[in-house]
Amino acid sequence: MSGAGAVLERVWTENGLVAAFAVVGAVMLFSSWASARLTGGRLHGSAIAILLGLVLAVVGGIGAGGERGLADLPWFSGLGLLGGAMLRDLAIVATAFGVRLEEFAKGGAAGTAGLFLGLVLSFAAGGLVAYAFGYRDAVSVVTIGAGAATYIVGPVTGGALGASSEVLALSVAAGLAKAIAVMVATPLCARAMGLDNPRAAMVFGGVIGTTSGVMAGLAATDPKLVPYGAMTATFYTGLGCLLGPSVFFLAAKMLLPPV
Fold first, then answer.
1. What values do phi and psi take at 136, rounded to 5?
2. Could you tell me where the beta strands, DSSP code E, fall in the chain?
3. Which of 4, 129, 143, 222 has a CB 3.0–4.6 Å from the CB of 163, allowing a cystine?
4. What distances in angstroms separate CA 39 from CA 45, 87, 202, 220, one per listed residue?
5. Which of 138, 119, 228, 126 is nearest to 177 (CA)?
6. Per 3-state DSSP, what percentage of the chain is helix, strand, and coil (rounded to 5)?
7. pLDDT in tens, the chain (259 residues)
8. How far apart (Å, rounded) are the C-alpha atoms in residues 242 and 190?
9. Would the CA dihedral through 199, 204, 206, 212 be positive or negative?
10. Running DSSP on this structure, what letter comes out for residue 248?
11. Residue 119: CB partners within 8 Å, gap ≥ 6?
12. Residue 120 near residue 95, CB atoms below 8 Å
């Protein structure tokens, strides 16, 4: 390798987190371009970015023979930190601090009811699917159910309950599938759902919950609705992280027979 190449490799690998931000920025730039030029904005850039991230993770994992995707390659080791639990939990807390309770109260009883209804339905649906596929212990059922809520609530709940890495991966996969589905379906179904005003966006965010999916879907529908949907979706994530390892876990233990 030439001298310039060696210097570039050293700088890149020794500043892994900065390099990771550069990689993510490049993926987002390409995804935004692809969304506008190839899909006419129908498929949001965030959805394309998630799909590209999954593809790159598989390619990197196969190429390195490891278990962390691109993070197993020295040039992309910073992605392991950028995508790790520390920054994930920091992002949750930072987003929650940006929400004002008095603004949330404007959603009224409908927004609050939608928030709890969305969480119960998501946990129940994910838990039933987990049970149907042979998972019988409360920890696995609740963790996968939490993943059906969002791909953030799943790992947080599973980590608190001591779920296996396999179950944690399934919870993330469930959350990602939901986020992508919401991104794609929201602009297509917005008119039928009456999703054209702030109140409806707040109820929608509370029922659906996945912040990335809701924000991307609303951005493709009407950018003015994004803050309202994001507000309740953020509460959904925080409330799910609180109720998952406590109320929902205790409920699952009472409902499921001992393993």
1. -115, -15
2. none
3. 143
4. 10, 31, 27, 12
5. 126
6. 85, 0, 15
7. 556 666 666 766 667 777 778 888 888 898 888 888 887 766 667 777 777 877 777 777 776 666 666 766 767 777 766 766 666 666 655 655 555 566 556 656 666 777 888 889 989 999 899 898 888 888 889 999 998 988 888 888 888 888 888 888 888 888 888 888 888 788 888 888 888 888 888 888 888 888 878 887 887 788 788 878 877 888 888 888 888 888 899 988 888 877 6
8. 30
9. negative
10. I
11. 149, 209, 236, 239, 240, 243
12. no
For residue 133 the two structure tokens come to 């596929």
Domain ranges of the chain: 1-83, 101-259
Amino acid at 111: G
- Between CA 102 and CA 112, with CA 107 as vertex, the angle to 5 degrees is 100
Query: With contact defined as beta carbons under 8 Å apart, do 225 and 201 qualify?
Result: yes
Do 158 and 171 contact (CB within 8 A), yes or no?
yes
In this structure, how many other beta carbons lie within 10 angstroms of the beta carbon of residue 204?
28
Rounded to two decimals, the pTM is 0.69
Tokens found for residue 57: 């993770």
Alpha-carbon distance of 65 to 176, in angstroms, equals 23
